[in-house]
Amino acid sequence: MLSQAEVVIVGGGVAGCSIAYHLAKQGVPSQIIERDAIGSQASGKAWGVISPSTNLVLYVEGSWVPEGSMRNCLGLSDEGLRRFPQLAQELKEEGGIDVGYGELPVIRAVFDESEEKYLKERVSQLKSESFEVSWIEAEEVKARCPDIAPGIRGGTLWSGQQVESYKYTLALAQAAEAKGASIRQGEAVGLRGQGSRVASVVLAAREVETDVVVLAMGPWTGQGTGWLGKEIPMRVLRDQCLVLEVPQRLPPWRITSGLGGGVAIVPKVDGKVILGHREDDMVDFDDRPTEEFGLSVMQMAVDTIPRLEEARLIEHRAALVAWHPSGGQPLLGRLPGWDNVYLVTWLAGFGIQWSPALGRIMADLIVKGHSAEPIEPFSPAGYVS
Ligand SMILES: Cc1cc2nc3c(=O)[nH]c(=O)nc-3n(C[C@H](O)[C@H](O)[C@H](O)COP(=O)(O)OP(=O)(O)OC[C@H]3O[C@@H](n4cnc5c(N)ncnc54)[C@H](O)[C@@H]3O)c2cc1C
Predict the structure, then answer these.
(1) Ligand 1 centroid, distance to 128 Cα (angstroms)
(2) Of 135, 142, 170, 179, which one has the greatest count of Cβ atoms within 10 A?
């Protein structure tokens, strides 16, 4: 069976859905092909926090990736922070879904003397580079978060926002659909090429003819390029989090503790609380939640906000996330050697916050042949063999 679609997007995660939405806004209909359900993988399981670029330089660089390696990504984060308030509104009007948007500033709570010294120095250095961050004393942390554990010495403060990641991904898909996109359930199993162009996407029971293909398959994107004889390096990590119900709402601050490896306590708009902790867990595509993670993250959370001991665990989520082989930047653009194949992956722990920017950039690349800003740092050219 053969059908036709102008642009076929393989993968209904936040990347695929944001591209479909931004294409639809430019009047280009696309078809999303998803083998499971929209937002069924990492995109529906994320904490849903949207952070400014300060987060990348203060928290990510030097902890999980080499110093300086996120500098090309700062604009992606800042575009997210700038656009989400309006985007949430648009998606409610166009897709009919409330994405659970809210402001959620971040306090990095500091209990340790050496961490205090280090962070105070970093804050003044980052401020001199115009990053938005400040140091607040212990009393100011307590005023914002009265439940914080004794021994608090102060903390860093920067702005932030949040959405419900599953609702947001679904809302992008539905708003795209309302503007002419279509969504089909099915697993892509191959691409049929003619010269330097792909002519159709092959599914188990049918084939879809297309002018343009976008591979937005998260950690599985390498399978897609493999159908065309191209390999991309892929670091696949498992990320987990707990969802709690608390007897009394926490104030609307995301509290994190510990440099790099600490806990993130994320109060959601509906009153639930997500506990996250980033690990460097290479799992060979095993996305099962682990008890060890649950116990350790709960302990770190109670050490930071003792009354979380009274909380009730309602969900333990785990999903696979694609990373750059040695850093944290995304991979996006046209697949070398193919005129009408595009890909986006390596969204690491930032796919939700980067999604407005990458959806816009990819739609511009496909429709206009270029994007407003230089995207060479993210180009597949240097990585595909
Ligand atoms: C616990 C956790 C917390 C996180 N917290 C945050 C956060 O707070 N903020 C943030 O910005 N990011 C966060 N992230 C990261 C974010 O979730 C990811 O970067 C993002 O979801 C990646 O989106 P994606 O569309 O590339 O991939 P995915 O969500 O993995 O989507 C890829 C889709 O492709 C489909 N697919 C694959 N192969 C095929 C095929 N052959 N045919 C058809 N369909 C196929 C899959 O089924 C899947 O639905 C978090 C992630 C996790 C796991």
Answers:
(1) 35
(2) 170
272 and 370 co-located in one domain: no
Q: What is the identity of the amino acid at 24? A: A
Q: Looking at the domain assignment, is residue 79 inside a domain?
A: no
- Mean pLDDT on 306-315: 97
Q: 259 and 345 share a domain? A: no
Total-model pTM? 0.97
Is residue 107 located within the same domain as residue 152?
A: yes
229 has which bridge partners? none
User: How far does CA 366 lie from the centroid of its chain?
Assistant: 22
Give the whole-number percent of the chain exceeding pLDDT 70.
Answer: 98
**Which residues form the domain of 201?**
2-44+166-233+327-382
Residue closest via CA to ligand 1's atom 13 equals 349
Residue pair 346/331 in contact (Cβ under 8 Å)? The answer is yes
Distance CA 311, CA 297 (A): 13
Residue 6 shares a structural domain with residue 152: no
| Residue 259, pLDDT score | 66
pLDDT class of 279 with cuts at 50, 70, 90: confident
CATH number of the structural domain spanning residue 337: 3.50.50.60
User: Could you tell me if 299 and 195 lie in one domain?
Assistant: no
Measured from CB, residues less than 6 Å from any atom of ligand 1 are 10-16, 33-36, 40-43, 45-49, 187-188, 216-218, 220, 239-241, 276, 317, 319, 321, 345, 347-353
How big, in percent rounded to 5, are the helix, strand and coil portions of the chain?
A: 35, 30, 35
